[in-house]
Amino acid sequence: MNENNYCFELEMKVRDYECDMQGIVNNANYQHYLEHTRHEFLQQAGTGFTDLREKGIEPVVSRIEIDYKNSLRSQDRFTCKLFLRKEGVKFVFYQDIYRNSDNKLCIKGRVETVCINNGRLSRGDELVPYLEKYL
Amino acid sequence: MNENNYCFELEMKVRDYECDMQGIVNNANYQHYLEHTRHEFLQQAGTGFTDLREKGIEPVVSRIEIDYKNSLRSQDRFTCKLFLRKEGVKFVFYQDIYRNSDNKLCIKGRVETVCINNGRLSRGDELVPYLEKYL
Amino acid sequence: MNENNYCFELEMKVRDYECDMQGIVNNANYQHYLEHTRHEFLQQAGTGFTDLREKGIEPVVSRIEIDYKNSLRSQDRFTCKLFLRKEGVKFVFYQDIYRNSDNKLCIKGRVETVCINNGRLSRGDELVPYLEKYL
Amino acid sequence: MNENNYCFELEMKVRDYECDMQGIVNNANYQHYLEHTRHEFLQQAGTGFTDLREKGIEPVVSRIEIDYKNSLRSQDRFTCKLFLRKEGVKFVFYQDIYRNSDNKLCIKGRVETVCINNGRLSRGDELVPYLEKYL
After folding, report:
1. ipTM > 0.90?
2. Subunits touching C (CB < 8 Å, at least 3 pairs)?
3. What residues in A contact C14, CB-CB < 8 Å?
């Protein structure tokens, strides 16, 4: 899967409070970056998501896998890129983070999400109208 | 105001992810400690708070003052102590944090809260039944 | 003190993980916004700060005051503005946060910082060359 | 692998600021819980770790997998349990989080760590003396 397959990207910059005693971004904060990127992507995919929520439909994360390749540090700029696939009832987000200065891969993530419809696992069909153009 | 006036205290331990590049707890995290201590105090003061919220009554922070006296570090145990006063329509929480190892004062905080009743500032009388025994 | 006195500003957008159960940005996170804005300002003020740190000179926050005026919510864009004054040995940052959509003041902050030189409180003269043009 | 195999456990309680707009603990915060549990475990395993760091030996996370089974909410108490295995050069921590009220599994985590010795990947033998009794 090469870089051309990404369908969304978001640039950010490390904030010092995100770094820990080792002087690098704390591991959990990358998950914040990934979440923010997904939410911005979903925002772009259509305002319908707010409507969905009001109908009791909620996308939730069921599994996350992150490979830590290189660390980000204070002042680093980085770009979060993603593409997604429908795998059964799941929408799976493939999310990578690159450091801007040298284009090195820092984080390789895979985030499985499922759709909860009024408290029950759905087949995810509610999201297809919003996401099919990205699949 | 001496230590005997505190009406609630909570012991915690620094978690490494709360420390920043300087190897000390990040300034904003003390505010988390203060919030958690207030919420635990309110929990002890009576389960009525959940009821209050369901009636549309919400306590909110209107102002915070924190003096940073000494830093906490990885592995430090500390104790958050508080007392409160009603000052006009406000409930004011005086919240101090002491390092356990030497009983040094680390944080001296003052947190003003007001009560919002269905979207409007109230005189705070709704909370008096729960808090008067601590005033 | 009117808006024209600000010497630095930084635009950001609320990230969903910064919001709490009440659906608004958690109080402590505003302190993160203020810290990030100060650090970006200091970055602009001169790369000399890294040099200073290597000489054992460290600016630290000694006191913070925040008035919470209006809440930020998911998707809100906001602008952090600051000006600063030297008051005795302290550099005091006056930091306000405005919501972009209606230019409403959300946060009014005042952050006192002192300079530690090899473990001892300094008169702050080390920072004057970097900051005097903003005073 | 049944529960009897855990070699360390730590009880915690949800803090309200860890919950997000959905009223449940934000996904990234579970990673904080897992990290804090590992660090407390390592603290128990021997003070030698500080010595190791001074010799330039640093354990780092290379990969994390988390299955989100059930959500934690405000006021929930929970217990983080772990066991570990040496798999090649990696120490792999198997970390699960259970809700105390009903003993339900909330989080199933697997965290791969490697050892960096003066900037280079090591075979992990430096940690064996500290961890072998837990393997």
Report:
1. yes
2. A, B, D
3. none
DSSP string computed for C54-108: HTTEEEEEEEEEEEE-S--BTT-EEEEEEEEEEETTEEEEEEEEEETTT--EEEE
* pLDDT higher than threshold 70 for residue B1: no
Residues in chain D, pLDDT under 50: 1
Quick: pLDDT tens for D51-81: 677 778 888 999 999 999 999 999 999 999 9
CA A102 to each of CA A23, A78, A99, C21, D52: distance values in angstroms, whole numbers, following the listed order: 19, 10, 6, 39, 31
Which residues of D participate in catalysis according to the annotation? 20
Q: Tokens in use for A6?
A: 């990404």
Burial category of B126 from C-beta neighbours within 10 Å (exposed 0-12, middle 13-18, buried 19 and up):
middle
Q: Find tokens 């939410």 and name the residue.
A: A39
Interface of B with D (CB under 8 A): 15-17, 32, 35-36, 39, 43, 75
Classified as helix, coil or strand, B14 is: coil
Residues of chain D contacting residue B29, judged by C-beta atoms under 8 Å apart: none
pLDDT exceeds 80 at position B18: yes
Closest Cβ opposite residue D35 in set B17, B39, B75: B17
Nearest to A69, CA basis, from A95, A37, A41, A91: A95
Considering only CA atoms, give the Rg of chain D: 16
Nearest-angstrom CA–CA distance, B93 and B101: 25
The active-site residue, picked from A20, A51, A67, A125, is: A20
Nearest CA in chain B to A26: B17
